[in-house]
Structures are given as structure tokens and as C-alpha cells.
Amino acid sequence: MFLHRNDRPFDKEGDGLNKVLREEKKFLISIDEFRRTSGKLEKVMIQDPHNGSHGYIIRSLYYDTPYDTDYFEKAAGVELRRKIRLRIYDPRHDFAMLEMKQKQGTQQLKRSLRVSRADAIELTQGRYECLLKYHEPFAAEIYAFMKTRCYNPCTIVQYHRKAFIAKENKIRVTFDNQIVATESSFDIFSERLNMNPVLDPYDVVLEIKYNGFFLNYIQSMLNCIDKSELSVSKYVLARQNAYQTHI
After folding, report:
1. Which pLDDT score, from 0 to 100, does residue 16 have?
2. Distance of CA 154 to the CA centre of its chain
3. What is the mean pLDDT of residues 66-76?
4. Whether 169 contacts 212, CB under 8 Å
5. What integer pLDDT is reported at residue 1 of this predicted model?
6. pLDDT at 245
7. Whole-number Cα distances in Å, 2 to 31, 87, 104, 188, 201
8. What's the confidence (pLDDT) of residue 111?
9. How many other C-beta atoms are found inside a 10 Å radius of the C-beta of residue 137?
10. What pLDDT band is residue 5 in, cutting at 50, 70 and 90?
11. 55 and 162 in contact (C-beta within 8 Å)?
12. CA angle 190, 88, 205 (to 5 degrees)
């Protein structure tokens, strides 16, 4: 079930560009570890206001070149790379966020542009001219980038997220599970997408996002987790699953 997220930033067209620079670490943990750790974090961190009882849903449509350049660069661990996606939190909303993530070493820069629902639908169909009417320079930049490199929609990924926030240093700790994906439809606003799991339902992806330094009291709560660092993204997991299915 999707949550209403009407109070998310950039709820009006032309509000501008959201820009975030941070470090990110990802780990694969069990659902039992998620339950124990989230219970501890609730006592010392602020819950994302959209968490509710079971978290909230994120759905992203990812783009790639005809040669799956971004997929293979990520899978190979190329240091300088990009990822482009269109993200929503509820198919009933009248907007979406067009995002580009750029990675260099441990640093990640994420830029997000709010686009109207009508323009988002154009983007799901591989038509990017609608970006030229937005005043933010990022809109022209991502338009040129996607057109010259022939980016096209390639997969939709959806998952449940529970997030915790620390005021100091803008730290976010998120837990993502029930990760599913599809390459049979790119209708990101559909409420009836047929999607397949890409991870065991008892696995959870833990992501730690922070700027510059990580607070000791939060780190100590996470150190007890028997975790293995995850080098691939949810996008790569979805594409790997699709490649195996096609084979």
C-alpha cells in the first residue's frame, strides 16, 4: 500500500533543484537484524515522518544506454560513474523526481529535479524534450546527457524503506526490503505492475548515508550487526535478475 507523501520537498513546479553530497555504505543483513537494530535506533534517532508502522514504498524507473553502460560500469566497480532514475512515492501523486547520482570514490553527489506527472509520463516513454521548459540548468544538462548517449528506460525497482535521521551531520540510516523489479512495463504510475523479487524476502539492505564523519553512538549500534558490505546497487540486482531470467 502506498503512502501519501504530499509534504515532500519541491511540491510545486519550478521550486528548483535538490543537491546532496554525501558518503554511502551498503550492507546486506537479515530481517531479524533489521528488527533488532531498528528498535535500538528508534530510541536515539528521529524516524522519517513517512515511516508509519511498516515504512514507506519507493519506486524508481532506471535509465541506461543501449549497451547497458551504467549497469556494467557499476558491476565492474568503475570509480567515476553515473546513474539516472525517475522516482515516485505514490502512483497517485502529480509529480516525480528526476535524479542523477554521480559517484567518485566514497563521495556521491545526488541532484534531483521535480517534474510534473505529465512530463514524467513523457520521460517514461523516452521523450525528453519536456525537460527543456524547466529553468534549472540541471534540466538542460540531463536532457543533453540522455539524448547524446541514447538513454532509454530499462527497469522499474520498488521496495519498502524504513528510515532514521540524525540532526547532526544529516545522517540517514535506511533499511530496504521486499525489493522487486520489472522490465516488462515502464508505467511508473501504474498501481498494478507485475514485479518479481530480486532478493530473498528475509534479506534487508542497510544503507548508511552521512557527510564527512559518522557519529560514534550510532556506529556502535550498527557494529553489532553481522553484516557483509554490499558492492552492488538495487538497480544492478534487478538487472542481474533480468539477465538470468532472459538466459
Report:
1. 64
2. 15
3. 91
4. yes
5. 43
6. 59
7. 21, 14, 33, 13, 19
8. 95
9. 9
10. very low
11. yes
12. 105
The pTM of this model reads 0.87
User: Which residues have a Cβ under 8 Å from the Cβ of 242 and sit 6 or more positions away?
Assistant: 155, 181, 183
Higher per-residue confidence, 51 vs 13:
51
DSSP code string of the chain = -PPP-TTSS--STT--EEEEEEEEEEEEEEHHHHHHHHHHHHHHSEEPTT-TTT-EEEEEEEEE-TT-HHHHHHHHT-SSEEEEEEEES-TT-SEEEEEEEEEETTEEEEEEEEEEHHHHHHHHTT--GGGGG--SHHHHHHHHHHHHTT-EEEEEEEEEEEEEEETGGGEEEEEEEEEEEESS---TT-S----EESS-TTEEEEEEEESS---HHHHHHHHTS--EE--S-HHHHHHHHHHHHH-
Residue that has been written with the C-alpha cell 518479481 in this structure: 196
**Model confidence pLDDT, tens digit, residues 108-138:** 899 999 999 999 999 999 999 999 999 999 9
Q: Which among 25, 177, 181 has a CA at the least distance from the CA of 103?
A: 25
Mean pLDDT of all residues in the chain?
86
Q: Position 118: which residue type?
A: A
